[in-house]
């Protein structure tokens, strides 16, 4: 049986939309964000802030 915290907050990978292949790893609350997560974060390969989308 999975623990309660991992069931509600799964680990997700955020991949850069700039096409550099850079990723962040984070957790999300499945109840508050049932859709794919999109966050604006820093991509050090191109030295800019870009959208990062949740990978499945």
TrEMBL record:
The keyword Iron-sulfur does not apply. It comes from the Bacteria. InterPro entries: Ribosomal_bL33, Ribosomal_bL33_CS, Ribosomal_bL33_sf, Ribosomal_zn-bd. Belongs to the bacterial ribosomal protein bL33 family. GO terms for cellular component: ribosome. It comes from Williamsia phyllosphaerae. Keywords: Ribonucleoprotein, Ribosomal protein. The lineage of its organism: Bacteria, Bacillati, Actinomycetota, Actinomycetes, Mycobacteriales. HAMAP family: Ribosomal_bL33. This is Large ribosomal subunit protein bL33. PROSITE patterns: RIBOSOMAL_L33.
């Amino acid at each position: 049986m999975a623990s309660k915290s991992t069931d509600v907050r799964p680990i997700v990978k955020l991949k850069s939309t700039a096409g550099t292949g850079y990723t962040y790893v984070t957790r999300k609350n499945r109840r508050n964000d049932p859709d794919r997560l999109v966050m604006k974060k820093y991509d050090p390969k191109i030295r800019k802030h870009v959208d990062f989308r949740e990978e499945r």
